[in-house]
Amino acid sequence: MRMRRGWLALGAAALLTLGGLSPASAEPDNEPAGAESPRGTWQVQQTAGGQLITWTSPSELPMGADRPSIVDAAGQPLGAASVDATARVVSVEVTGAAPDVATLDVVLSGDRLDVEGDDRARSDLLAVDTLPRLVAGQSALATDPATKGPYAVSTSNYTRPGVKMAGMPQPIEMVGHVVEPVADAATGPRPLVVFLHGRHSVCYGKGEGPQTGDGWPCKPQKEIPSHLGYDYVQQVLASQGYTTVSIRANGINAQDYRLADGGAEARAALIDAHLDYWKTLAGARQVDLDKVILIGHSRGGEGVNRASLRTPLDAGYTIAGQVLLAPTDFASQSAPYVPTVSVLPHCDGDVADLQGQRFVDFNRDVMSDDTSLKSAVMVFGANHNYFNTEWTPGIAAAPAWDDWGGNASAFCGRKHDSRLSAAEQRRAGTVVMAGAVHLFAKGDQDVLPFFDGTGATVASLGDAKLMSAAIGGGRDGRRPGVDAALSAAPSASSRLCRTTASRRPGTACALTEGTASPHWVQPGEKVAVRKAWEVSWTAIGQSAGLTFGTPLDVTGRRLELRTVVDAASGATRVGVRLTDADGASATLTPTTGERLAPLPGSRYMVRNWAQTMIVDPSSAAIDLSRLRSVELVARSAKGRVWVLDVAAAGTTLPAAPAKRAPIVDVGKVTVDEGDSPKQGTAQVPITVRGALTGPATLRAVVGGEGTWGGTSVAVTLPAGATSGTVAVPFERNVTHELYPRKVQVALASLTGAMTNNYIGGVTVRDDDPMPKVRIKVLTKQVKEGQPIRIAVIGDAHVGEWWPVRYRFVKGRGPVLRVADVGDWWKRHYGKAPGTKPLHAAEYPLGADVSAHRRRVVVRIPTVRDGKAEGTEYVTLKFRDKRMTKKVTVRVVD
């Protein structure tokens, strides 16, 4: 199943409601819905727009890259989930009736947190082919990018004053770990490689404090030196003539729960700050700032991509390429014109949905003239953490763990033969990272087979296996439903379908239950959904085709089909028939083999991943300069595949265009609510950086979280535009909101430009008077065994939430004690001696009112104990922002 990502900070009102204050005991029809799960507690609360569903974990959630989701019985997220500052409360707001919480789960990195055990321990494989068969025929390269070079290296560190970041109370540290050739090494100009680690725990040691929030900086604990975890790659690159620096981002990790974008902008700004510093160092250290390569791991990958897409060509340094290791992509962004390698660890136990694939797929249609390479590299047997030595057990300074978890002997478990050891994973990572640096910084074409889908191996890989698939890089592509249509009269089943993860029949490319794909968009996610060509057959010889709007020239080139094999249908065999514009045709066997097999995986792993099927057309007796259509011809009795695109590809990588895409930012606006009964409308500003040479199309999500939920609004900016707006409706009322009402607006790019700051919105400033609350004692005198009942009543100005607190205070006469109220005390305060007076309670309880529940009754039971005690008294003090009132009730023996 695919995990999703909208982990936004809860609003202040929700934080106060959920942060430990016990609700008042209410009349039965006002009781909030709730339920205990095997692990944690569910609660449903009514809001203006629907229902707020929360799950409270019994312990703090682990700090990692992925974000938790609340999913339904089919495994589909209800929307973008939020996690509060305590890292224990997960919530999502839904419209309409509240779902049955017994049917819901909280999923993080492929594991259901509300259910005992680790779902990743399952070992049921839907694909049983061995890895060697999947990568058969890969050639051995003469150039091994992981081999150390001829230069001696030196290591140093620097610390600069911290940088203040928006939304974070504490400044972010400026710390760099530098590995470079020695000063007198005759390397010539040295490209600069910058590493950024991901989201990981920040503190360790005696007296461990919180991972996030006010526990930062780490005191008295030590900081986890995550930035030192790539020294093994830095040493290799420095020996080959590169200057490298790995920067620390613990301050962001400790505080990014506050930020709607998960800290991506802050990470990009930190990269900017370090590169600006390197402008002062470059001359003395022979650094070539026209060739900067960024390498980001986990959330650092998303931060790197954000820096790449928004860094202009006149910044004083040029991003020549980027490598994203197991990255997150909460913003649905890519970096047009910047060569990109996205590394997908097959056994990733953190970013388990392999969302790094989106950096390839989402770039396909954005800028029509973008010829930069976008490559996804699957590293079989690799997990999320072991690319960083400081996240690897046994060699890390701080406690570390295998992120895959689950049964060690099951598929992807650390004892299974599918897994790489930590050392093997580092060697494979060095091959990919160093290879990409050579390709992007020095144009080394020898390493291109690692990234262009043709496949290769070198000695440093050992038993590790890689597969890749790419778009761009000089390819001339054809896209199903855009510039390619279905051919007439197929004998196999053939259709164009939408790559959305719906299992309902219709226009979706429906996946089989229990399978997932990193190429498919989740239902409810408001981003571009592309079309795929789906072909299925039930007999050998059946065929179906795709016809190109403009003929494809494959002279001297290979033909590539990015092909997803249905994991549930299993391995299959196909031939490929090529037809030219005159009708001449030839049927060929792919050079990658006629046999197509899905990737091995278990239920909670992604398997439906697009492999590169390659056809060499040179032997076909057709006009190769005018290829009109391609057909798949069944050579097995059954099968089902999806083709994402078809392209003619060369054997060398052309230089990327020296361009940057126009950047679109969405802003924030504050408006007065007003008292008119008519709905208000606010105009949220959009600004453009760079020249829009053609129209840009975007999608705005109004009222959701991130690119999820809400209302989808099409936005078109004409050529030459420098700004625009999104119209956002808001409701006016006569009730008082304790906190300003906010409507989020998120932008997603479709064509012509790329988003940067993609989350903005409207703050509606309340102008209604504060409510008045009355306290009415319903039982001024009760007999032992009867409940004390006091009503808290708000007037017509009560809005979504108005906090009223009450506590026991010392009053007149003999007072009630803990034993006099039975289990009620234990439920709210815990165990205490029966002789303890009620006014010794340490904290107040809540009796909150709202527009949906303007009358709340505090019910305190009394126990009939059979002892002659006479009349006793209980006094309570109620308080809100404008009211304080004491009430006393007599309890008659």
From TrEMBL:
**Presence of the UniProt keyword Signal in the record:** yes
Write out the entry's keywords from A to Z.
Answer: Signal
> Does the record bear Signal in its keywords?
yes
State the organism named in the record: Nocardioides dubius
- The secretion signal range is 1-26
- UniProt protein name: Secreted protein
Q: Which InterPro entries match?
A: AB_hydrolase_fold
